[in-house]
Specification:
transmembrane; about 0% strand; transmembrane helix; about 80% helix; mainly alpha; single chain
Length: about 170
């Protein structure tokens, strides 16, 4: 198996498992509902962390897919080409952020919709708004900090490539 294909499968596999975890958590019946301010804060923080991480995983998977399939995104061959492609890369990364925000928001809506069919759980529009707020905050963080994408590439080379190198896979 090709290393690039394996990394794309790994990226989408972890994202899919995380989405399955979110849907499983939404089917847990009879969660205790409290009016305690600290407990509400913990639930909001938990939901924001969950959906912020979901956005990051979706963005990583989309970016890994595009970087391995679009040669213009994977590497530059000359300095002049790098300058020409910076605008192209910015447009593609912006589109990937929009797509990741859209998919994550759709998952948040679906998560609340599933709760209609779970005993003791009720869909709340406030939860959807909190989820979308977390997704947008993560998107702003990713979009305004280009080093996050570079960190993903560095982690891929450090851990994923070493995994294949130790096993003699090219």
């Amino acid at each position: 198996m090709n290393k690039k294909l394996a990394f794309v499968l790994y990226s989408w596999g972890t994202t899919t498992l995380f989405i399955m975890l979110i849907f499983w958590l939404s089917t847990v019946p009879y969660l205790a509902d409290s009016n305690d301010i600290y407990e509400q804060f913990i639930k909001i923080f938990y939901r924001m962390s969950l959906y912020g991480l979901l956005f990051l995983l979706l963005y990583r998977s989309l970016l890994a897919t595009f970087r391995t399939t679009v040669k213009r995104l994977s590497k530059w061959h000359s300095r002049a080409e790098k300058e020409d492609d910076q605008e192209f890369v910015l447009i593609i990364e912006t589109l990937l952020v929009v797509v990741a925000v859209s998919i994550a928001s759709l998952i948040a809506l679906t998560d609340e919709f599933i709760q209609i069919y779970v005993d003791g759980r009720f869909p709340e529009p406030v939860d959807v708004l909190i989820s979308i707020m977390a997704i947008l905050l993560a998107a702003i963080l990713v979009y305004s900090t280009p080093s996050i994408g570079e960190l993903e590439i560095a982690l891929k080379h450090k851990f994923f490539d070493n995994f294949f190198k130790k096993r003699g896979i090219k």
